[in-house]
Amino acid sequence: MTLPLDALAIAASVRQGQCSATEIARAALARIRAKPDLLAVTRILEDRALAEAALVDAQVARGEDPGPLAGVPYGVKDLFDVAGLPTTAGAARLEFAEPAAHDAIAIERLRAAGAVLCATLNMDEFAYGFVTDNARWGITRNPHDPDRFAGGSSGGSAAAVAGGLLSFTLGSDTNGSIRIPASLCGLFGIKPTHDSLPMEGTFPFVHTLDDIGAFARSASDLALIDSVLRGEPAANDAGPLRVALLGGWFARDLVPDLRAALDTLASAIGPLPTVEPEGVAAARSAAFVLSAWEGGRLHAPSLASDALSYDPATRDRLIAGAALPEDVHAEALARREVFAHTFDTIFARYDVLIAPTVVGPAPLIAHPVVTIDGEEKPARANLGLFTQPISFLGLPVIAAPLAVPGLPLGIQLIGAKGSDARLIAFARDLEAKGLLATKLRD
Q1: pLDDT band at 352 (very low <50, low <70, confident <90, very high)
Q2: pLDDT in tens, 127-156
Q3: 289-334 pLDDT, tens digit each
Q4: Best label site of 204, 273, 375, 435, fewest CB within 10 Å?
Q5: φ and ψ at 261, to 5 degrees?
Q6: Is the pLDDT of residue 233 over 90?
Q7: Where would I find the Amidase domain in this sequence (predicted)?
Q8: For position 175, which CATH number holds?
């Protein structure tokens, strides 16, 4: 019997007794062990996974409903608290820290829904980067081409789903850390309305921007996982929507294949009008400042006492951020108010905005750059060209894979605050029409 990988299919099979959660868990653990070269996983949680699966099977045997995610194997970015394990946040300096006393609330909710936790997943140290180049656990490889980055900072979470290791994963997104790896690996992902999903039990980076969210194999799986995390039913119908493309800043430097794919999508949906918001460059700069200042302040005590235990690529940026004066933080927040007004005006006319996630496919590890305005710039800091201005405002965004040949290319579906469920429903509609397609390496 071929075991399913989609979350909805697994849960249905387990609840109906067609396969056991233990079978599913063992298969997931075997897939993880079969692909160590992806460097997606930092710890395999075999004992926990088999224990959770056994509980699900016992519920089924008693005629009880184990929950909407019954037996579905998943993993979490290594900044979620997992009871009994150190929360490393991708840092070697925390590898042997005091273990977490409790699971993060998100993990508690998934366990209550029957999901089975199998692994913790690689990330950029302290979530400060866009490529998952980790000094302790290595560079996570893109399942579609191991010579390319998976994106970051939640690269292990994306690679684990795209590579067929797990059915879904959790990551975090501050400036694009879910959307970028989702797009480079050909997945669906969500950066929710700021503070709308439970952050308790996660290692912080920039508290005014940090959010958690899921990576999934389909928009329908994403809808189910997001509803479990929220404790609310998923929306089934997006309803009539006014849709537009973001141009200007968001149309620059695109590779020809991505530009053509966006044109095709716009024609299939619309034709769609194009909106060119003002102040995007200033907003992105302010997001950089906000991240540096808050991240630097958070780590200042540890840097003062033990700076050499940090990855130099992370340490130097955190030190620079800690040195920024107080007034630049206030200025960045003031800039956010101005930029928010710009988007409030746009959302008075449109419900969904579509923009590229990155300028093209995943960069090569041997040549870690992206081309911006004709110049090659470091990918680790610049893959967020199109994502940072959006998360700066705390808006909900669905990262969605375009139905294109070759390496994955992705888009952002952006809505006003609180429109998360409607955005997911819109993604489901586009997927059903064949305009979006997840790219997987089962």
Answers
A1: very high
A2: 999 999 999 999 999 999 999 999 999 999
A3: 999 999 999 999 999 999 999 999 999 999 999 999 999 999 999 9
A4: 375
A5: -65, -40
A6: no
A7: 23-232, 327-423
A8: 3.90.1300.10
Token pair, residue 12, equals 């249905």
Q: Which token pair is 93?
A: 């300096």
Structural domain including 118 reads 7-230
Residue 440 lies in a domain: no
**Predicted confidence band of residue 189 (pLDDT cuts 50, 70, 90):** very high
Distances (CA, A) of 357 to 28, 200, 254: 29, 28, 10
HSE-up of residue 99 (Cα within 13 Å, Cβ side): 7
Span between the terminal Cα atoms of the chain, in Å:
16
- Phi first, then psi: what are they for 184, rounded to 5°? -70, -25
Asked if residue 260 and residue 221 are part of one domain, the reply reads: no
| pLDDT exceeds cutoff 90 at 238 | no
Q: How many independent structural domains does the chain possess?
A: 2
* Angle (CA) 161 163 167, round 5°: 30
Sole residue written with tokens 């194999």: 217
Total Cβ atoms within 10 A of residue 432: 11
**DSSP 8-state assignment for residue 442:** -
Catalytic residues: 77, 153, 177
* In a shared domain, residues 209 and 295: no
The CB density around residue 434, as the number of other CB atoms within 10 Å, is 9
User: Residue 12, Cβ neighbours under 10 Å: how many?
Assistant: 15
- Backbone angles phi and psi of 371, in degrees to 5: -95, 120
Place of tokens 């959302």: 347
